[in-house]
C-alpha cells in the first residue's frame, strides 16, 4: 500500500523543504491539540476540590486563547504547504504527460486510445494529487497524532485504562487491510471502465455526422447507456467498500468508549484516577475518532493513488520509437536528400511497404510522387518525417544519415500538409500562424493569394477571426486543405511535403495554386504526392510507385513516351476533364 510514496519519492525529494515544513507544522499542531483536554481535566478537579480561583480561571482561559491563535497560524502553514505541494505534483505530472505525448511516435497512439490517455491525464492525476496532499495528512494523523494521544492517555492518566480502551485496535487494523485490497482492485476496474467510456464518447462526438447519416442515434445511445451503467456499477462497488469504513470504525470506537467509560468509572470509584482524568480520558478517546477514521481514509487514498500512478507510469515508461542521437550532426540547410536501397516495414505488419527505393533529390527541385492508393506514397514521406525507426538501406541529407540529426532539426526543415487535415478549434488566423508565430498581414494576404484562399476568407462572417469549430467543421473540405497548405507555406520551409493535399479543390483552383507554388518555391525543395496527375505535371522528376517500388521515373514528357501506368492514367484523367 505505502509503495505509492516510494513511487513519488522523486517529487518529495524535489520538494523536501515544503513537505518538511508541512509535516513539522502538522506535528506541532497535533501536540498543541493535546493540551486543552488536559486543561479541562485539571479545571474539573480544581472545581471538585474547591481550588479554582478567579485568577486561576483567568489564567486557563488566556492559555486557551493563546493556544487557539498559535494553532490557527501553524494550521495555515501546514495546510498551505501541503496542499500547494499536491497541486504542484499534479501540474508537473500533467506537463510530463503532455511532453511525453508530443514526443511519442504513431505506434504509441495505435496502442493507446485517446479516451484512455485523457482519463489518465484527468481522473488518475486527481487521485495522485490526493495522495500527495490528503494522503500525507491522513498518514501523519493516523500515526503521529494517534501515538501522541495514546502516550498522553497512558503517561498522564492510566496505562491500564488506555490499553483496555485500545483492545479493538488490532481488529480494526485487520479489517482495514482487507478493505484496502478490495478497494484497490475495484478502483482499478472502475478507472478502466471510465477510460472505455471516455474513448467511446470522444469517437461518438467526432462521428456524429456518420451516426446521423446511417440513422444510428438510438443504437449509439443504447451502447452509451450500457457503458455508463457499467461505469456506474463499478464506481458503486468502490463506494460500497468505502462505505464500510466509517461504520466499522465507529463501532470499534464505540466499543473503546464503552470500555473507557465503564472501566474508567470503576477506577474513579477506587480513587485510582480523578474525575477530571476520566473526563480528559474520554475527550482523548473522542479525539481518537479522527485518527482511527484517518486510517480508513489513508487506505482508501493510498489504494486509489497506487492504482492511478501505476496507470500513469505505464504510459510514461513507454519509449518513443525514434530518439535524438547522443552526439548529433548539424548542417545549415539540406542541400540534397538521397534514398539508397531504402526498405521499410511497419511495426507488426507483414511484408515490406517500401522496397529498394533509390531516389536523389537536390535542393530546389520539385518531385512528383504518384501511384495507386496504397502504393506507398505517404509511407515514403514518413521516412523524412521520422515517425518510425530509420529504414533499412541509407537515407541521407547532405550525405549525413538522417538519424544523425535531432528530430527538431529535420522537422524544422519540413512543412507538411497531410491527407487528413487537422485544424484546431480556434480562429482561421490562429490556425494559419500555428507553426510560425506572428507575421505581418501583408505576408498573410500574400500566402492566402498563393493558396487561392483570399476570397474564401473574405466571405467568412469575421474573416480571419472566424472560429473554425471542432476540427474545422465550419469549413468545406477544399477550404480546410487550403488553410493547411497556407499554414505550411507561412513557415517558408526548406522542404515542403504535400501529401495529396489538393484533392478537394477543383482543377482551376489547383492550377492557380501550382502556378503560385512554382513561383514562390524557387530554390527550395517540394515533394508532391497526388492522384490527379496535373498536380505533378510541372515536376522536375516524377516517380510512379507500385507495391512500394519505383516502377517508372522521369519528367512528364519522358513518362508520356513510356506507355506505362502514368501515360495511361494521365490520358484517362484528361478525357474525364474534357467530358466535365
UniProtKB/TrEMBL annotation:
Bilayer-crossing regions: 21-40, 60-83, 127-151, 157-176, 249-269, 281-301
Main location: membrane
Domain ABC transmembrane type-1: 21-304
Signal peptide: none
Residues covered by the ABC transporter domain: 337-572
InterPro entries associated with the record: AAA+_ATPase (IPR003593), ABC1_TM_dom (IPR011527), ABC1_TM_sf (IPR036640), ABC_transporter-like_ATP-bd (IPR003439), ABC_transporter-like_CS (IPR017871), P-loop_NTPase (IPR027417), Type_1_exporter (IPR039421)
Membrane topology: Multi-pass membrane protein
Gene Ontology molecular-function annotations: ABC-type oligopeptide transporter activity; ATP binding; ATP hydrolysis activity
Pfam family, one: ABC_membrane
Compartments where located: Cell membrane
Highest taxon in the source lineage: Bacteria
Keywords: ATP-binding, Cell membrane, Membrane, Nucleotide-binding, Transmembrane, Transmembrane helix, Transport
Gene Ontology CC: one annotated term: plasma membrane
Protein name as catalogued: ATP-binding cassette, subfamily B
Organism, scientific name: Gracilibacillus orientalis
